[in-house]
Design a protein that fits this description.
167 residues; 8 strands; 3 helices; alpha/beta
Length: 167
Amino acid sequence: MMALKIPGALYEQLRQHGEAAYPHECCGVLVGEFDDAGGKIVKGAVRCGNTRTDSPANRYRISPSELVRIQRDALLAGHAIVGFYHSHPDHPADWSGTDLSEAHWTGCSYVITSVENGRAVLTNSFFLRGQEEDKRFDVEAIELIAQNQVPCKAELHKKGGVLACGE
C-alpha cells in the first residue's frame, strides 16, 4: 500500500487548523514530492481560506487564484502539489459524495480530519485514482516521519501560510 509520508509537526498543524476553523470546514494544500514507490512525501502544508459561502460547515472551496499561487510557489521551490486536506466538523473522517465529485487532482492525497466538538479526533487519507468518469478514492496509509527525514531540495517559505520544510 502506498503511503502519505508527513512530518509529525505538519500533521499536527493541519489537525489544529481543523480545530481553529470549527464549526466550519478548514482546507489547505499539501506540497512535497512523489517518491519512486508511488507514495508522497509532504514538505509543507498551506492553509487556505474556505471560500464556500453557501455551506461552510460541510463544504469547502479553495479559490482558483490561491491554488495557482500555491502551485507556482511550490514549483519554484522544486516541489509539487501532492494533496489537499480539509476537516469534517462533527462528521467522520471519511470522504463524502461531494468530496469525490469535487476532487479532480488524480494521483493526489485527500486528507480528512474529523473534528468533534472542536477537537480533532481522527485523520484519514484517501488516494484519488482513475479518470474523471471513473474516479475513486482508495484508503491510503499516513506515515508520520521525523522532520529530519524530509530532504529539502529548496527551502519553502512561510509566505502565504506555507509551513516550511526546515522549520
